[in-house]
Amino acid sequence: MAKTILITGATSGIGHALFEQYTKAGDQVIACGRNKKQLDAFADIAFKTCLFDMTDKAQIEAATEPLTSLDILVLNAGNCRYIDNAKHFDGALFADVIQTNLVSLGWLLQYLLPKVKSGGQVVFVSSSATIIPFTRSEAYGASKAGMDYLANSLRLDLVKENIAVTLIHPGFIKTPLTDKNDFDMPFLLSSQEAATRIISAIKQRKAYAHFPKRLTYLLKLLSLLPNAWWQKIILKDNK
User: Fold this and answer.
1) Kind plus residue range of the DSSP H or E element containing 228
2) How many domains does the chain have?
3) Integer Cα distance of 231 and 210 in angstroms
4) pTM (2 decimals)?
5) Half-sphere exposure of 105 toward its Cβ, with a 13 Å CA cutoff?
6) Is 36 exposed, middle or buried (CB count within 10 Å of its CB: 0-12, 13-18, 19+)?
7) Residues with Cβ < 8 Å from 164, sequence gap 6 or more?
8) For 32, which of 1, 50, 154, 237 could close a Cys bridge (C-beta 3.0–4.6 Å)?
C-alpha cells in the first residue's frame, strides 16, 4: 500500500535521492525545500510540494498547514559549515548552523508531528560525525549531536503514540554539500546508495542505522580508545 512520506531537503543530495526512489516505488511523496525552481520541476511527479525556509517559523507553519496525515516524516535537510579558526571563533556561523540543523527541527516537529499517524514513523538523518569529535566541526557536530539526543528522547515519548523514531548516521555521501570539502572522504557513497540504505532501515523500523560499516565501526572503535590515543590519530593530519 502506498505511503504518504514528507521529506525535507528534497531538492538535492540524499533528500532528492529519497524522493526519486520513493516516487518510483509508487509512494505519495511530499517534497519540501526552499529551491522553488527545483520544487516546480517536481510538480508533475510529487504528490505535493512545500516551499519554505527551515529557519522561518512562519513559512513552515503556512506551507504545512494544508497537509493532513503522514505515514513517514523524514527530517533530512541541513547545512554544513566549518569553524576554520577556533581561537577566533565565529559565533555567527555557529548560530546559523545550530539554527538550521537543530532549532528548525523544533518548528518542524511542532507543525508536522501531530499529522503523523499512529503506526507512523519519524526519521532523523543525522551524521556519523557525532560518533567521535573532528576538527573544525564544532558547529556541525554540535548540531547533529543535538539531533541525536532529540531523536533518542523523542523515541521514548512517542511509544505511547505508536510512532517509531529512526536515527540515521550516514558516513561521507557525495552531495553538493560534501563537494565543498577540502579533505579526503573515505568510503564515499553516492546519494542513491545512501537513500537505498535509509529506505531499508525505515522499512525495518530500525531505531538506529549507520553506514558504511567500514567507516562507522572504525569510528566507534576509535571512540573506545583512551582520549590521548584517538586524539593523536585525529590530529596527525592537522598539523
Assistant:
1) helix 227-235
2) 1
3) 22
4) 0.94
5) 25
6) exposed
7) 120, 121, 122, 155, 158, 205, 207
8) 50
The beta-strand segments (E) located in 67-109 are: 70-75
Q: State pLDDT tens for residues 170-203.
A: 998 998 778 787 778 888 999 999 999 999 999 9
Strand partners, 29: 5
156 contacts 167 by C-beta, under 8 angstroms: no
CA distance 9 to 162: 26
- As a whole number of Å, the CA-based R_g of the chain is 18
206: which 3 cell numbers?
A: 530500525
Nearest to 194 by CA among 167, 214, 169, 218: 169
Angle at 65 between CA 191 and CA 160, to 5 degrees: 75
- Please write the tens of the pLDDT for every residue from 70-96: 999 999 999 999 999 999 999 999 999
Structural domain for 221, as ranges: 4-235
Is the Cβ–Cβ distance between 85 and 16 less than 8 Å? no
Strand 70-75 to 173-174 pairing: unpaired
